[in-house]
Amino acid sequence: MDIYLITVGSRSAQWVLHGFNEYARRLPKHCCLKLIEVKAASRKSGDIEQVRREEGRRLMRRVPPGSHVIALAEHGQPFSTRALAEKMEVWMRRSVNAAVLVGGADGLDTKCFEQADECWSLSTLTFPHTLVRVIMAEQIYRAWTILAKHPYHRE
Question: Which fold has domain 2-147?
Fold first, then answer.
């Protein structure tokens, strides 16, 4: 199973890349986390809806066929790390890849939500979109450790 974190923006700070890569490299080969970055749309026109549409198209074009698509948004369904582990267990059992969509500064286009299988909220707090990369990588690793009965996750 592969989990794709598909994000808007391609200029991550070194600490973001280091944090993401640290957790991604800890995962076993049968549960691979991959970062796919798409270029942010030009905001010169000032038309935010147009920006979201273009970024949404770019994100959706990068979703591997047959993937379980998850849109991240403030209004999404909150879930626990244990619930994420349960979802990952189902994906592994079914040999389904997952694609997690992270919008740009103006959020995700409505088409992304329409095409997503689920909509999740990481928190009611607002996070910088680059930080979400590190948070998701850590949570995916933590969920895997729950499934593997690894001591990293303690309750």
Answer: Alpha/beta knot (3.40.1280)
